[in-house]
Amino acid sequence: MYYLIKNLHVTCVVLSAAGFLLRGTWMLTGNALLQHRLTRLLPHLVDSTLLLSAITLAVMIGQYPFSAGWVTAKVIGLLAYILLGTLALKRGRTRGVRLAAFAGAILVYAWIVSVALSKNVAGYLA
């Protein structure tokens, strides 16, 4: 069961990143598909599944935020990613702010993945 949940989690990680990159590209190019109903709905489904599978895995392996440093780092990174992603796709007032937030979100996302792979709080910064 663990490997099934882990594979679901990793699949959602890839789908979430691909969706964010696509939506970010559409934001930068002014593509109307960014406002499509499916474009607004699918990320919530994927990210909810991603979060649920993450919580399930944490319970299964007994690694929780504030008891396992690398899990705490991922949660803090997730909050930064959400904030930057919101600025990039919705709340950024200028194209420059949106572009900077988009780049920052991608860097944070890559760091979160590196923390998950290395189980090291510094991730690729180590």
Automatic annotation (TrEMBL):
Pfam families attached to this UniProt entry: SirB
Keyword hit for RNA-binding: no
Entry's transmembrane regions: 6-29, 68-89, 96-117
Keywords assigned: Membrane, Transmembrane, Transmembrane helix
Domain of life: Bacteria
Listed InterPro entries: SirB (IPR007360)
Gene Ontology cellular-component annotations: plasma membrane
Keyword Transmembrane helix in record: yes
This protein's name: Invasion gene expression up-regulator SirB
Organism: Thauera aminoaromatica S2
